Amino acid sequence: MNHLDGRYGYIKLMGAIRNNCSVYDYETDELQNTYDSIDEVIAGA
Questions:
Q1: What confidence score (pLDDT) does residue 30 get?
Q2: More confident residue, 9 or 30
Q3: CB neighbourhood size of 13 (10 A)
Q4: For residue 25, which of 44, 39, 43, 6 has the smallest C-alpha distance?
Q5: CA distance 38 to 16
Q6: Of 12, 13, 16, 21, which residue is the least packed, with the fewest Cβ within 10 Å?
Q7: Are 34 and 11 in contact (CB under 8 A)?
Q8: Residue 28, exposed/middle/buried by CB under 10 A (0-12, 13-18, 19+)?
Q9: CA–CA separation, 41 and 11 (whole Å)
Q10: CA 24, CA 45: separation in Å to the nearest integer?
Q11: pTM of the full predicted structure?
């Protein structure tokens, strides 16, 4: 995934399957945010 401000991140497959979408920084693997659903990730809530 890429953010409008130029950051890149990823979610782990098992997290997405469990509807616990934790977004990690692509370069540092640092947790950026946790969302309750993939819809929240897309909305950027």
A1: 94
A2: 30
A3: 8
A4: 6
A5: 7
A6: 13
A7: no
A8: exposed
A9: 10
A10: 16
A11: 0.67
The Cα–Cα gap between 39 and 19 comes to 10
pLDDT bin (cut points 50, 70, 90) of residue 7 is: low
Dist. CA 19–CA 25, nearest whole Å: 19
Beta bridge pairs of residue 2: 8
Please name the residue that has the structure tokens 């990823």: 10
Residues 26, 15: Cα–Cα separation, whole Å:
16
Residue whose token pair is 């950027």: 44
Cα distance between residue 12 and residue 14, in whole Å: 6
